[in-house]
């Protein structure tokens, strides 16, 4: 699945706006994942703050944790490395391959959990930029998810 030049341009503009607040937005995406899909907390056993409050804290409280903020930023940085390659599937695959391999073999993350992150990202884009931006960026998350699954 390739994106058109217009899709790529639109996606870049949407991403630029959401990435402008990388730390806060990354933390929000992850905190929602932890609250709505509690099994994902188990992937982060080394996040001691998260482990101690995950059951009782709100998504907002989880988003304020330093370890969640740092990892949310890391997730957004990885996506930021992918966005420039949306018009070049081979380059996109090269960018995704090491991430997919690490998550599949070393971290033992279920590939379906990437969908959770993407759904939360799209929800946040919709809240901050509207339905059109969300729809436009869904093409990006669909493409990236397909390439992650293929690399798993």
UniProtKB/TrEMBL annotation:
InterPro entries for this protein: Globin, Globin-like_sf, Globin/Proto, Globin_lamprey/hagfish, Myoglobin
UniProt source species: Protopterus annectens
GO cellular component annotations of the record: sarcoplasm
GN (gene name): Globin E2a
Protein known as: Myoglobin
Parts of the chain that traverse the membrane: none
Reactions listed under catalytic activity: Fe(II)-heme b-[protein] + nitric oxide + O2 = Fe(III)-heme b-[protein] + nitrate; Fe(III)-heme b-[protein] + nitric oxide + H2O = Fe(II)-heme b-[protein] + nitrite + 2 H(+); H2O2 + AH2 = A + 2 H2O; 2 superoxide + 2 H(+) = H2O2 + O2
Keyword Repeat included in the entry's annotation: no
Job description of the protein: Monomeric heme protein which primary function is to store oxygen and facilitate its diffusion within muscle tissues. Reversibly binds oxygen through a pentacoordinated heme iron and enables its timely and efficient release as needed during periods of heightened demand. Depending on the oxidative conditions of tissues and cells, and in addition to its ability to bind oxygen, it also has a nitrite reductase activity whereby it regulates the production of bioactive nitric oxide.
Domain Globin: 2-152
Family label: Belongs to the globin family.
Record keywords: Cytoplasm, Heme, Iron, Metal-binding, Muscle protein, Oxidoreductase, Oxygen transport, Transport
GO MF annotations in UniProt: heme binding; iron ion binding; oxygen binding; oxygen carrier activity; superoxide dismutase activity
Domain of life per record: Eukaryota
Subcellular location: Cytoplasm, Sarcoplasm
SUPFAM superfamilies reported in the protein's UniProt record: Globin-like
Major place of residence: cytoplasm
